[in-house]
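note to self — DONT lose this again. spent like an hour looking for the file last time. sequence + predicted structure for the chain T wanted, 606 res
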Amino acid sequence: MYQVLYRKYRPQTFDDVVGQPQVTKVLAEQVLSGRVSHAYLFTGSRGTGKTTCARIFSKAVCCRSPKNGEPCGKCDICRGIDGGSVLDYTEIDAASNRSIEDVRRIREEAWISPAQAKYRIYVLDEVHMLTNEAFNALLKILEEPPEHVIFILATTDVQKLPGTILSRCQRFDFMRIEPQLIAERLRSVAAAEGRELTEAGAAMIAGMADGAMRDSLSILDRCMSEPGVIDENAVAAAVGLVGKDALFALADAICAGDSAEAIRLVNEFHRASCDSERLCSELLSHFRNYMIVRAVKRPELIVVCTRADMQKYKQRAASVPLEKILFYVDVLGETAERLKRSVNGVVDAEIAILRLCRPTLAETESAMLARIAALEQRVSELETRPAVRTAAVSRQAEKAEKNADDGPLPPPFDAEADEDDGPLPLPFDAEADEDDGPLPLPFDAEADEDDEPLPLPFDAEADEDDEPLPLPFDAEADEDDEPLPPFAAETEEFGDPPPEEPFTLPFDADEAEAAPPRAAQGGNPAPAGTHPFARWSAVCEEAVRISPMFSGILPEFSAAEVGNTMRLSSRTPMFRSILLGNKTLTDALKRAVKAVTGRDYEIEIE
């Protein structure tokens, strides 16, 4: 009859026990020295060797010829305990024999002297399942048993044991077995069975076993049902797991927010008979490895995987914020709990995947942290780009805004020739309009009909008698050929000029046509009684030179002056808030205005 691997390769001595040296060495020393206690408590997770060590210890203390604290395995006692023929050794399942009557029967039998062995030994497995009355019945004999009785209590949930029981036993804690030790044991068992188990396959089984040697041997037993080499693919096919490559593909789609690809992969797993609960568990472990890689300096000591997979984990995890990874783990943990009670697991799995791809669909604290982390990452990416515009680009953008009705200006230094005169000799881009109106760029003078250049250094438009205008600014003559005073062009739109003296410094000729100032995104006309600030573009250039932070802010404002006050307006609340809430920027702007105009202006932001 076929015997399963975990029974066939059960350790027979303390040396055969894997991963529990803190227990086996002490027990062997007690047997060797004869200092054997009357009550022991073995506690730990499943499959870590509690019952196995209890059986080895029982054989060792009753063995006819023990060697260095180990049972010989050949005498009638050792073979009888293994075969179940020694009546002095009793293993009791406390989960099914948990009543007070069962404990009373044990207590009555304990007073009977052993028939074959040196001791009468009782092993109570899963002792935490006893009732309170049964524990009370066990207390007295556990405290003062006959000299020939040894009690060994084994449990996976030591917290449920009363303190009175704990105080009467020597406690030994069985730790989860290291995955590396499990993988080595699996390969030796596979070799003994004449099968080849790859390192990657052994690591995958050890990872699924969660520190339990019995579970790992059961998985290996299942994998051996198929012929051939037992590798990762064979293990995944036998157990119904998602392959590592498929998990990485699904995780990449989730991290990129590609919900369509993620849902497609989930449905492929479902068609391949991958259970939704298993998929959720595997994906949870996958993102847990991301978390460990981000949080620990040497994740190789914790994460069970091959070197190639570890390299993939490090590359992927480096591009995902830790807050987002914690959000993934949180959602998958909730989904795993919900899947246990779910009517349709596929729907719950798909909902979880959508929430992972789009954190905005979740309202938990971890979802908020994930969204904040994504925003911070986006801001850091934007900050790495060039933050300062050149002065020429800023000025050209401002002119294009103020001359929106005439279309964008051509690039600087590109002179467009008219039909009759050929290319203009000036280094600036000057284009004559049909009505011989003023040119938009400074220092670009248009010749009159007689091709005589204007004598002024500024761009002035000649009247019908070809007489130059007397003002140093670019002003448009009215119908009676009388020059307009400075800053008084088209006063019907701006109202009466302020009582202060007109601004005496030269300004750009393209400001000559006093169009109402507009905000960066189609702003409103300036309030009555104000004038457009003539040297605003020069102020922007000087402000950017003082502080590069102005480069993306000031071009979004329009400026007007009233008296000794400069009014800035913009339809973008964020830019207004930046200037209003930062006195350092406001002071720097005042310095730039004074450097350009020579005057101290108060800054008022609308």
